[in-house]
Every structure is written in C-alpha cells, then in structure tokens.
Amino acid sequence: MNLKRKRLTYLTIVLGLVVLVAAGMTFKNEVILWTCISKLAEGASYNPLTGEATLDYTSTEVLERDIRSSPLARVTVRNFPEWAGLLFSSPDILREYFLIPVPFKNQITVDYVVQLQIMDSSGSLSAVLFSSENGQTGWHVDFVTIRRLVENELAKNYPPKEPKRRKSPNYWFKSHQVPMRIEVGPDRDPAYSSYLLMKVFYDYGNENKPSNVLRIRAGVSGYFGFSWNRVKFTLLKLKVTGVLDKQAALTALKRY
Q: Whole-model pTM?
C-alpha cells in the first residue's frame, strides 16, 4: 500500500511538472528546485505542484544548523534543550540578524513561538519579510508593529490600532511562550487587486483577530529571518510557508 502511494505521489508530481513546463517553467529548473532546495537550507522543501516552499523548523537543531551555515547571518546563538528553543541575545546597540537563503515572493505565512526574557526600553525583536541579501531593505514586524526599511533607514512605521500595544512590549507581552503568526497574501477586495494584505497575530490561537493589518503593494520578494538588538529571547516551533521566488532561488543555488 505504501509503495502504491509513493508511486502515485511521484506520478502526480511528474504530471504537475509537465503542466509547469507548458506554463513556461522548464522541467529541468523545476527538478533542480525540487531536489536541490535543501542545499540552501536543511529545513527547506519545495512543492512543484503549488510553487510553494516550506521552512520547517519544528526541530530547533535544524534551525541552529541553518543559521550557522547561512551566508546571510550575523548572530550568536546558544542551543537549549529541544523544548526550550534557541536562545538569542544582543546586549548592546549592535543589531544581530539571520536570514534563511530561500527567497519568497508575494505570499508567506510565518508561525513561531517566542518567549521574551529581558529587553531594554530601546530594544526590538522583528520577524523580517522579503528582505534584501544585506538585510537593509524589507518589511520588519517588530512584535506587532509593522515597519518598512529601505537601506537600513526607517521609511514608514505602522503601529497597531490598540493603544496598549503601541507601548513597549515590556508592558504587555506575556512572559511565557507566546505563539505568533504573520500572513501576507492577495487582498480579496477587488478595489485593491494590486495590493497584498499583511496580518499580524499576537497570541495566535487564543486571540482570533489580527493585532495589526496593513495593505502593501504586490511585487515584493526576498528572504525571511529575524533581526534584534538589546533583547534576550528564545525562539521555537518556527514554520514558514510561501510562494517561492523561483528565479531568485535558482540564482541562489548557483551562488551559495
């Protein structure tokens, strides 16, 4: 039975690849992405039928290895037991960050659990979306505040509507492990067909409504990761799914 399922799965994927060839993506390139994407990151996989890539870091050991091997990282990480996640800290003004060299385009969903240990009043902890390779341009979700960075300068700041969450997270962010989610996808409103909708969820699963929602223009592409300074925190149960920027991924495979 298992053998039959495997054969059916491979047949389905091959048929899907044929469809993609007809749509303009070469069979060779699709096979390269399907079989070689894990060279960019151990936790990465690619589904040629949907065009989606997944970064699965259920295992913090895999996340640690991918961070250490990433050419797009400046970080010090200490590994804790599997249940506790990875511990990160940046005690001074120097910002640390890591990016996973798997590029996404226009659509992405990020799930993770974070525990805030200690943070300076000027500290920050951001999930980074659609970032440039040097980490200086992209979208940053600092807890629930959305920020647009261009060449390492703050271009625009979009705080949440709720006044309490405009304050420092030291006042409202729970001290235990908090599940977070970020979603970016097409805006279903026909009047905004050229825009994407970004939603940020705090304490996801317990709070059903997003803490922050923002429309951004479609056409964004880049890498995912985290950026922080003057903070100590643990990160675990990280999973990212989104549309792969295929051309950028093929370029990254040649480069890295």
A: 0.87
